[in-house]
User: Fold this.
Amino acid sequence: ELKVEQNPLFLSMQEGKNYTIYCNYSTTSDRLYWYRQDPGKSLESLFVLLSNGAVKQEGRLMASLDTKARLSTLHITAAVHDLSATYFCAADSGGGADGLTFGKGTHLIIQP
Amino acid sequence: DARVTQTPRHKVTEMGQEVTMRCQPILGHNTVFWYRQTMMQGLELLAYFRNRAPLDDSGMPKDRFSAEMPDATLATLKIQPSEPRDSAVYFCASGTGQANIQYFGAGTRLSVL
Assistant:
Protein backbone atom coordinates (compact mmCIF):
# COMPACT_ATOMS: atom_id res chain seq x y z
CA GLU A 1 0.00 0.00 0.00
CA LEU A 2 1.38 3.36 -1.02
CA LYS A 3 1.83 5.82 1.85
CA VAL A 4 2.74 9.47 1.57
CA GLU A 5 4.05 11.43 4.53
CA GLN A 6 4.64 15.14 4.70
CA ASN A 7 6.45 17.20 7.24
CA PRO A 8 6.00 19.51 8.83
CA LEU A 9 2.21 19.43 9.05
CA PHE A 10 2.11 22.99 10.31
CA LEU A 11 4.52 25.79 9.58
CA SER A 12 4.42 29.40 10.63
CA MET A 13 7.08 31.61 9.14
CA GLN A 14 7.86 35.24 8.50
CA GLU A 15 7.87 36.97 5.18
CA GLY A 16 11.23 36.96 3.50
CA LYS A 17 12.38 33.67 4.98
CA ASN A 18 13.16 30.43 3.18
CA TYR A 19 11.80 27.04 4.09
CA THR A 20 11.36 23.51 2.79
CA ILE A 21 8.47 21.07 3.00
CA TYR A 22 9.37 17.39 2.76
CA CYS A 23 7.37 14.57 1.23
CA ASN A 24 8.31 10.92 1.63
CA TYR A 25 6.50 8.09 -0.09
CA SER A 26 6.68 4.42 0.71
CA THR A 27 6.86 2.49 -2.56
CA THR A 28 8.11 2.94 -6.06
CA SER A 29 6.09 5.66 -7.69
CA ASP A 30 6.40 7.03 -11.20
CA ARG A 31 5.20 10.52 -10.47
CA LEU A 32 4.92 13.03 -7.67
CA TYR A 33 2.49 15.94 -7.50
CA TRP A 34 2.19 19.11 -5.50
CA TYR A 35 -1.12 20.87 -4.96
CA ARG A 36 -2.15 24.02 -3.17
CA GLN A 37 -5.44 24.48 -1.31
CA ASP A 38 -6.74 27.75 0.10
CA PRO A 39 -9.25 27.58 2.97
CA GLY A 40 -12.64 26.39 1.76
CA LYS A 41 -11.41 26.11 -1.81
CA SER A 42 -10.47 23.46 -4.30
CA LEU A 43 -7.04 22.01 -5.04
CA GLU A 44 -4.80 23.76 -7.54
CA SER A 45 -2.07 21.83 -9.33
CA LEU A 46 1.38 23.34 -8.78
CA PHE A 47 3.91 20.83 -10.07
CA VAL A 48 4.15 17.38 -11.61
CA LEU A 49 7.52 15.66 -11.25
CA LEU A 50 7.98 12.79 -13.64
CA SER A 51 11.48 11.46 -13.17
CA ASN A 52 14.40 11.19 -10.80
CA GLY A 53 16.21 14.48 -10.45
CA ALA A 54 13.31 16.50 -11.83
CA VAL A 55 13.24 20.09 -10.66
CA LYS A 56 10.49 22.58 -11.42
CA GLN A 57 10.16 26.21 -10.40
CA GLU A 58 7.33 28.68 -10.44
CA GLY A 59 7.93 32.04 -8.84
CA ARG A 60 9.07 31.55 -5.26
CA LEU A 61 8.29 27.82 -5.25
CA MET A 62 10.63 25.09 -6.38
CA ALA A 63 9.92 21.36 -6.29
CA SER A 64 12.33 18.49 -6.72
CA LEU A 65 12.17 14.70 -6.83
CA ASP A 66 14.64 12.02 -5.71
CA THR A 67 13.12 8.66 -6.59
CA LYS A 68 15.99 6.72 -5.02
CA ALA A 69 15.38 8.35 -1.65
CA ARG A 70 11.61 8.40 -2.32
CA LEU A 71 11.66 12.05 -1.37
CA SER A 72 10.26 15.21 -2.86
CA THR A 73 10.78 18.71 -1.54
CA LEU A 74 8.93 21.96 -1.99
CA HIS A 75 11.18 24.91 -1.32
CA ILE A 76 9.85 28.37 -0.62
CA THR A 77 12.17 31.27 -1.27
CA ALA A 78 11.66 34.69 0.32
CA ALA A 79 8.13 33.85 1.43
CA VAL A 80 5.31 36.34 0.95
CA HIS A 81 1.90 36.40 2.66
CA ASP A 82 0.09 35.29 -0.52
CA LEU A 83 1.75 31.90 -0.27
CA SER A 84 -0.17 31.12 2.91
CA ALA A 85 -2.18 27.96 2.14
CA THR A 86 -2.16 24.21 2.68
CA TYR A 87 0.25 22.34 0.42
CA PHE A 88 -0.29 18.70 -0.44
CA CYS A 89 2.01 16.25 -2.07
CA ALA A 90 0.58 13.17 -3.76
CA ALA A 91 1.84 10.12 -5.57
CA ASP A 92 0.32 7.53 -7.84
CA SER A 93 1.20 3.86 -7.82
CA GLY A 94 2.21 3.86 -11.45
CA GLY A 95 1.59 1.07 -13.88
CA GLY A 96 -1.51 2.78 -15.17
CA ALA A 97 -3.13 3.13 -11.74
CA ASP A 98 -3.88 6.80 -11.75
CA GLY A 99 -5.61 7.41 -8.44
CA LEU A 100 -3.56 9.65 -6.17
CA THR A 101 -2.54 9.00 -2.59
CA PHE A 102 -2.20 12.31 -0.75
CA GLY A 103 -0.13 13.34 2.21
CA LYS A 104 -1.86 14.98 5.18
CA GLY A 105 -0.92 18.44 3.94
CA THR A 106 1.30 21.19 5.31
CA HIS A 107 -0.62 24.16 6.67
CA LEU A 108 1.59 27.15 5.95
CA ILE A 109 1.07 30.53 7.53
CA ILE A 110 3.31 33.38 6.45
CA GLN A 111 3.21 36.37 8.72
CA PRO A 112 4.21 39.91 7.76
CA ASP B 1 -11.95 28.90 -18.97
CA ALA B 2 -12.33 25.10 -18.77
CA ARG B 3 -13.16 23.76 -15.35
CA VAL B 4 -14.66 20.79 -13.56
CA THR B 5 -18.19 21.62 -12.42
CA GLN B 6 -19.71 20.03 -9.35
CA THR B 7 -23.27 20.30 -8.08
CA PRO B 8 -24.56 20.94 -5.55
CA ARG B 9 -21.90 23.01 -3.82
CA HIS B 10 -23.50 22.42 -0.44
CA LYS B 11 -25.89 19.76 0.78
CA VAL B 12 -27.45 19.32 4.20
CA THR B 13 -29.52 16.22 4.70
CA GLU B 14 -30.80 13.93 7.40
CA MET B 15 -29.44 10.53 8.18
CA GLY B 16 -30.99 7.85 6.00
CA GLN B 17 -31.68 10.10 3.03
CA GLU B 18 -30.26 9.53 -0.44
CA VAL B 19 -27.63 11.98 -1.65
CA THR B 20 -26.59 12.42 -5.26
CA MET B 21 -23.57 14.49 -6.25
CA ARG B 22 -22.84 15.37 -9.86
CA CYS B 23 -19.71 16.22 -11.76
CA GLN B 24 -19.17 17.57 -15.25
CA PRO B 25 -15.54 16.91 -16.25
CA ILE B 26 -13.58 19.23 -18.51
CA LEU B 27 -14.56 18.61 -22.12
CA GLY B 28 -12.17 16.13 -23.69
CA HIS B 29 -10.96 14.66 -20.42
CA ASN B 30 -11.37 10.88 -20.36
CA THR B 31 -10.51 10.15 -16.73
CA VAL B 32 -12.71 11.14 -13.79
CA PHE B 33 -11.89 10.76 -10.12
CA TRP B 34 -13.89 11.05 -6.90
CA TYR B 35 -12.08 12.03 -3.69
CA ARG B 36 -13.34 12.72 -0.18
CA GLN B 37 -11.73 15.17 2.22
CA THR B 38 -12.21 15.13 5.99
CA MET B 39 -10.22 16.62 8.82
CA MET B 40 -9.47 13.21 10.28
CA GLN B 41 -8.65 11.20 7.16
CA GLY B 42 -7.48 13.91 4.79
CA LEU B 43 -7.95 13.33 1.06
CA GLU B 44 -8.97 9.82 0.06
CA LEU B 45 -9.56 8.34 -3.37
CA LEU B 46 -13.02 6.80 -3.62
CA ALA B 47 -13.24 5.74 -7.25
CA TYR B 48 -12.21 6.60 -10.76
CA PHE B 49 -13.25 6.02 -14.35
CA ARG B 50 -11.47 6.01 -17.67
CA ASN B 51 -13.50 6.35 -20.85
CA ARG B 52 -16.58 5.93 -18.62
CA ALA B 53 -15.48 2.48 -17.39
CA PRO B 54 -14.90 2.08 -13.63
CA LEU B 55 -11.27 1.19 -12.99
CA ASP B 56 -11.02 1.34 -9.23
CA ASP B 57 -13.65 1.75 -6.55
CA SER B 58 -11.76 0.07 -3.73
CA GLY B 59 -11.86 3.22 -1.62
CA MET B 60 -15.62 3.35 -1.61
CA PRO B 61 -17.94 1.72 0.98
CA LYS B 62 -19.76 -0.63 -1.34
CA ASP B 63 -22.87 -1.11 0.72
CA ARG B 64 -23.99 2.50 0.53
CA PHE B 65 -21.93 4.30 -2.12
CA SER B 66 -22.20 3.98 -5.87
CA ALA B 67 -20.46 5.84 -8.68
CA GLU B 68 -21.48 5.95 -12.32
CA MET B 69 -20.76 7.77 -15.57
CA PRO B 70 -23.97 7.75 -17.60
CA ASP B 71 -22.20 9.65 -20.36
CA ALA B 72 -18.89 11.39 -21.02
CA THR B 73 -20.15 14.70 -19.62
CA LEU B 74 -21.60 13.46 -16.33
CA ALA B 75 -20.31 11.49 -13.38
CA THR B 76 -22.44 10.81 -10.31
CA LEU B 77 -21.71 9.72 -6.77
CA LYS B 78 -24.65 8.45 -4.73
CA ILE B 79 -24.92 7.64 -1.05
CA GLN B 80 -27.93 5.63 0.09
CA PRO B 81 -28.62 5.66 2.96
CA SER B 82 -26.46 8.54 4.17
CA GLU B 83 -24.91 8.53 7.64
CA PRO B 84 -23.38 11.31 9.76
CA ARG B 85 -19.89 9.85 9.18
CA ASP B 86 -20.32 10.60 5.46
CA SER B 87 -20.11 14.33 6.22
CA ALA B 88 -17.15 15.60 4.21
CA VAL B 89 -16.17 17.56 1.13
CA TYR B 90 -16.41 15.44 -2.00
CA PHE B 91 -14.18 16.46 -4.88
CA CYS B 92 -14.39 15.40 -8.46
CA ALA B 93 -11.30 15.70 -10.65
CA SER B 94 -10.69 15.03 -14.32
CA GLY B 95 -7.70 14.55 -16.56
CA THR B 96 -6.49 13.26 -19.89
CA GLY B 97 -4.03 10.74 -18.50
CA GLN B 98 -1.04 12.76 -19.72
CA ALA B 99 1.32 12.96 -16.76
CA ASN B 100 -1.83 12.19 -14.76
CA ILE B 101 -2.43 15.87 -13.99
CA GLN B 102 -5.82 16.06 -12.31
CA TYR B 103 -7.97 19.18 -12.30
CA PHE B 104 -10.24 19.48 -9.31
CA GLY B 105 -13.75 20.84 -9.08
CA ALA B 106 -14.88 23.17 -6.31
CA GLY B 107 -16.28 20.28 -4.28
CA THR B 108 -19.59 19.38 -2.68
CA ARG B 109 -19.72 20.05 1.04
CA LEU B 110 -22.02 17.41 2.54
CA SER B 111 -23.44 17.54 6.03
CA VAL B 112 -25.49 14.58 7.24
CA LEU B 113 -27.38 15.34 10.44
